[in-house]
Amino acid sequence: xxxxxxxxxxxxxxxxxxxxxxxxxxxxxxxxxxxxxxxxxxxxxxxxxxxxxxxxxxxxxxxxxxxxxxxxxxxxxxxxxxxxxxxxxxxxxxxxxxxxxxxxxxxxxxxxxxxxxxxxxxxxxxxxxxxxxxxxxxxxxxxxxxxxxxxxxxxxxxxxxxxxxxxxxxxxxxxxxxxxxxxxxxxxxxxxxxxxxxxxxxxxxxxxxxxxxxxxxxxxxxxxxxxxxxxxxxxxxxxxxxxxxxxxxxxxxxxxxxxxxxxxxxxxxxxxxxxxxxxxxxxxxxxxxxxxxxxxxxxxxxxxxxxxxxxxxxxxxxxxxxxxxxxxxxxxx
Length: 333
What we know:
The structure is a single chain. The protein is mostly beta strands. Helices cover 8% and strands 41% of the residues. Strands 4, 5, 6, 10, 11, 12 and 20 form a seven-stranded mixed β-sheet that branches. The protein has a seven-stranded mixed β-sheet with strand order 18-17-16-15-14-13-19, covered by helices on one side. A hairpin with a 2-residue loop joins β8 and β9. α1 crosses α2. The longest helix is centred in the C-terminal third of the chain and has 14 residues.
């Protein structure tokens, strides 16, 4: 999908912009490439810069309830410093690196309901126009996909996925929000937990997997949440026995007696260590996507397809324009 937008601040006769992303889904920490096509207006303009901004539709919980808005989480300057004459066509290829924590929007080609976009900013003659959004599709890393496949094979089902504004304490989280995938419990755990919430925090050195169980209450007490986090390397995903590994994670999670979890680091030999972890971000969000769909291998149908929507505001003043401008397409940390 492309957008073609007249530079509104210059009115009729201004230049137009088409931004085209290369086909196929990108991956967290991977390359996003495409082309920005400019067509000059009725007069010439000096193009000061062309920037791409990564944006996400994110939910936030606060004292008054829950709200939704658009948060920028990456910005790249991909060109500028040239003259665009009247009627001139100028194509600008680009290649930028996505943040490692970029949320996953699809599984086996099926949308999860998470909305990401690429917004193009064109600055000419002292005026800036941010234009409309191109939807951004992101597929999981091999280790992320393997965890989801293992959960599906264990009998867990997909409930919804959203982006939550806030941070998960005790992790290496970099972005101001995190992705939360909500799963219905496998039949063997249905009497112990209401749902499992899964968060991936990818980094160059490996993948943090955060699992939270909304536990059922017993006769002598109320239900409570239990949280555990685990770390796996990116390398060797194909050789790992993911079914046994993930099953061990779930068993450890549901057996926790307290709200504080443990942290296990897994290599190819399955060794681990422990340290405290806690959840400092907002709680579970519910209204991004719906659909009862299994996470079994190859099955993610029945979801409501995510569409890029008009911006609905920011949570905090300045979030939309936040972030350091990385010249030449580097990633924003």
